[in-house]
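Amino Acid Chain and Its Fold in Token Form
===========================================
Purpose: to set a sequence beside its fold so the mapping can be learned.
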Amino acid sequence: MAVSPEEIGLCGCWQVIAVQRESLDLSQPDAKPTVTVGYYASSLSWGQRDDAGVLAAIRGHWSAIENGTHYRRDVTLGEDANRTADRTGAAVLASLRNLANGIYELERDRERTKVDTLRSWCQQQTFPSAWPLLQR
């Protein structure tokens, strides 16, 4: 069923794109594929890119997230290894990881740090050195 972005409350976007995905749990030999649908809002006008171009943009977006942010959160900050069972505690820890990653990125973009990895940067931080960064 085709709808306009305005009809679903996304004023200013030109397209809503639905992508159907099938995934298979390879650790379960008898598992059946799971089908999910992901929805994307785009500022691309109709016909600006063909289907292959839109799909490439979506894959590129997820590739950047998986290879960038997720890598840092998981490998550098050990997020997947963390076994905090309390939902509130897990949310707080995720927020702190996001904060550390964001401050590091800002410091790098503004060329206020020479450290080339998030891990090294985090190891150098103490409360007295990090507090002024939060107040900028």
Notes: The first helix runs from residue 51 to 76. The chain is about 45% helix and 15% strand. The CA atoms of residues 13 and 43 lie 5 Å apart.
